[in-house]
TrEMBL record:
Family (UniProt): Belongs to the phosphofructokinase type A (PFKA) family. Mixed-substrate PFK group III subfamily.
Name of the protein described by the UniProt record: ATP-dependent 6-phosphofructokinase
Gene: pfkA
Phosphofructokinase domain span: 3-309
Keywords: ATP-binding, Cytoplasm, Glycolysis, Kinase, Magnesium, Metal-binding, Nucleotide-binding, Transferase
GO biological process, one term: canonical glycolysis
Amino acid sequence: MLRIGLLTSGGDCQALNATMRGVVKGLANNVKDLEVYGFMNGYKGLIYSDYRMLSAKDFSGILTQGGTILGTSRQPFKLMRTPDANGLDKVEAMKHTYHKLLLDCLVILGGNGTQKTANLLREEGLNIIHLPKTIDNDIYGTDMTFGFYSAVNIASDAIDCIHTTASSHQRVFIVEVMGHKVGWLTLYAGIASGADVILIPEIPYDIEKVCEAINRRKERGSGFTILAVAEGAIAKEDAALPKKELKKRQEEIAKKYPSVSYKIAEEIEAKTGMEIRVTVPGHMQRGGSPCPYDRVLSTRLGSEAAQLILDKQYGYMVGMVNGKVKKIPLGECAGKLKTVDPNAQEVLQAKRMGISFGD
Ligand code: F6P
């Protein structure tokens, strides 16, 4: 008998279902007696013992389905050691659920925060496998996370649509792209859709340089400019501030503007006199069916996770390294962020083609 638990935690993304399907099909085809416990709404389900028994049938037909059949929630890592409103020790409660159900392994699908809790549970003696999900692609130790390319497709489609209206009206357009503190999604969506300016947190922007790029295009006869701006984009002068002052500054910006793109828009308008619009595709970027690349990636990661469980190898994230699916010790990647290297090939190649990063 093999008993596994499954949970999806943090912001959802495409291919969560496809990944769980890979795990369960990979096990069901190779184990006679398999019990699958699906914990509802992320770590909450594990803490409060809220689960559903699942059969292979539950994983049929979900390869292309977005979201997560288990539901999800955000349970901040920094609060995991803090008792809940009723004084319940959450870590002990999770361990209790795991042992009560006699689980052989718990498979956790999630991003950075989720991974930190997964590693904590590993340190507490549970058998854990982590699978890297996020549209942000910011998980250290894997080249790619599932969800990323699906989100790149959606953000690129949004910028493509903006392109036609921007050129018709000769306007400057900012499309704000998700990505939390990193610029992977903006960089890839920006390149894929031919953005003229790409602003990402890893390369703090100088507003003068951004305006120069817009004016240069105008002088060359292109009266419109498309900016792909990461939600975490940061001005050069702000990036230079000490941590505490930066936090204060970001709070001020958040109070005054719905997001950083509106601040940038105001500054560009004042400096260039051009008509400017902001578009925020927002959570659309996390929604809908996974793209074929993500379906393949998640199926491969899920299947490999199944093999690790069959081999009783626990305590790993299953990721993609140089085109191969690999196991990476959780202790080596948890708590680290994978950011865009400002000198990455993608950035330098884009710059060579005239794309401005505002630096
Ligand atoms: O981590 C995925 C992500 O979509 C980020 O890109 C974004 O900053 C954040 O989640 C949004 O979180 P929420 O769904 O809580 O609004």
